[in-house]
C-alpha cells in the first residue's frame, strides 16, 4: 500500500443556506481544488457523502463543476458518512487504483430531532426515549452515577467549543457562551440543556487525497499524510467499545498511541459525547473526562486541544459534512494555518472521530 | 492487483414484502454465505446498496446476522447502486485490503413514478416530462424517427423477458405475455405501454467477493471471476455515450470485446432501454437493435441471451438490489446452475449493465 496525502481541503461557512445544497457543495470542491493546486480534470474519482440529500446528489454536485466521466459514489453512514468517504478514498489511493480522489461532504438539514435509528423495537422506543437527545441524556445520567461527573463539566464542553468557534470563519456560530448561559438554557433531556446540543446547520466541505508523487510535485507546504483510518460497526449500546475498538484499529495502523495525539476533532453532537470520547479514545482513564475539561487540557491552549474548530457544538453538524470538516481543521492546524485558533507547539499528529446512528464509528489519524 | 472471485451469491424472491426490508436483506446474505460456504465471522467488510431505505440501513441488516465489528458502508448510486457496491468490493479484494467482502443490495419500493433527477430546471421539467417514463418515451420516439424502430420491436423485449421470468423462481412475475397484450396494455407515455415498464418490486440480493486463495479452498465448482468493472458519470442526456464509455472501460480492463460476451443482464427498466443498450454495449450497430430482437438473437436460445433472469421487466427492479441480482444470474449461468433458463453452449463470459438517474452507469464483466 502507498502513502496517502491530503493535498487540499476546502469548506463553505456553515449556517442556514438558501442556495441549493449542490451549489455550496461545488463551492467547497472548488475551494479544495484551489488549495490543492489541482485542476478539476485531474480528479479521477469522487465520493459524495451525505445522509438525506436524495438520489444521486453527488452526481448533481459534480455536474455543477463539469462532467468528466469520473466515478462518483454516494456514501451514507449516518454522522460518520464523511469520514467513511475519507476511508474509502484513502484505500483507492493507497492501493494504486487512483492518484487523485475527491471527497465532498454536504448536508442541508431538516428541522426536528433525529431518532437514534437503532432498529430496535423496545419500550424505550415506544416511550420516545430513543431520539438522540434521549440517548445521550441516558449516557450522561449513567456517567454521573458511575463517576460523579457533573452537569457543570458537561456544560464546560459547550463553553470551550463555542469559544473556539469564535475564531473559525467557517463556523455557524461566533458567539461565546458563559457556563451559566449553557446551564440555564432550556432543559432538553435531563441533564442536557439546549446549549449542549449541536445546532441545526447546513454546510459543505471537501478534501483531496493524493499519492506521494502528486503530493511532492510543486508543493512548498508541509506534506500532510493520512496514516490511520478505521470504520467499524458495533452495537449502538456499547459506545465505549465501539469508539475504543475503532480507535485501536486506527492507532495500530498509524503505529501511534493516544499519547502521541497533539490535537483532535471529536464527535460532540451533545456535550456528554465529547467527555465519553475522551475516555474511549484513550485520552484519559474511564471516569476522568470531567477532570480533563476542568483542568483545561482540551482547550486550544491546553496540552491536548480538542475541537479547535468549534466542533459540532459551534461550527455545526451538517451530517454528511462533519467528517470532512474535521479533516479540514486538522490539515490547517498541522500546516500552522489556523490563525487565532492555531494550537501551540507545532502539532505533528491529529485525530478525527465521528460516530453515527446505527452503530458506526470512524477514526482517522493524520500527521505531518 | 489480485484476481477477484464470486464465491457465493444469494437472493430472496422479488415481490411485495410485508416483512421489514432488513429481514429480507439478511436472508439474502445468509443465502449467499451458504452458497459460498463461508462463515459470517469470516466476512471482513460489507457494502449495503440501496436508494431510499433510510439512514444506516446496512448497519440494521448486519445487526440481524450478528455484529462482528466489520466495516459496513452504505452506497447509493440510483439504479446503479448495487453494481457500484460490487465495483468497490472488487477493489477492496484486488488491492489486498480484504480477502472476503459482502455486498448486499435491497429495496422496499414506494408507490408512484420516479423522477429523472437530472438536477435540471427546464421547460421539460415544468411540463412533467422529466419523469422516467417520459424520458424513455422521448428516447423511443427519437429512435423510431432515426432508425425506423417499431413499437412491436420494443414490446418484444417485454415478451422475451416475461417469458424468461417464468423460469426464474426469484422473479416477481412468472407469467408469459403475448405481443398483443403488451402492445394493447394501457398507454403510459407514447409509445411505451404499461407492460413495457418494470413493475414496482421489493427485493434483496447478496454476493460475496473473495481473493484467489479463498476461492480455491474447498471449492469443487467452476471459479467465477470478476474481470472488468467500471462506474462512470456523464451527462444524462447522452445515454449512448454514457453506456458506451463505461462499457469500453470495462471491456479494456477485462481484455475482451462485445464479441466475446456470451450472455448479459442489461438495464431494461423500459423496453426501449434494452434496445438502446444493445447498441451502446456494442452488441450490434447503431439502429440495429430492433433487428436483434426480431431475429431472436437475445432469447435464451439465441446466440447472445440478454436478461435470462427475466430482467427488470419480469424479475423486478428493487433499485438497490438490481446490480447484485444481475450478478447472481450471471454467476448461476456460468456455473450451469440455471435449470430451465440455462443458456446454451457452456457460456464463458457474462456482462451486467445498470444505469442510474443522475447520469451514472456501471458495467461488470464476469468470466469462468
UniProtKB/TrEMBL annotation, chains A, B:
* Origin superkingdom: Bacteria
Note the Pfam families from the entry: Thiolase_C_1, Thiolase_N
Q: GO MF annotations for this entry? A: acyltransferase activity, transferring groups other than amino-acyl groups
The UniProt record lists the Thiolase N-terminal domain at 26-212
The Thiolase C-terminal domain is annotated at 228-365
The protein in question is named Thiolase family protein
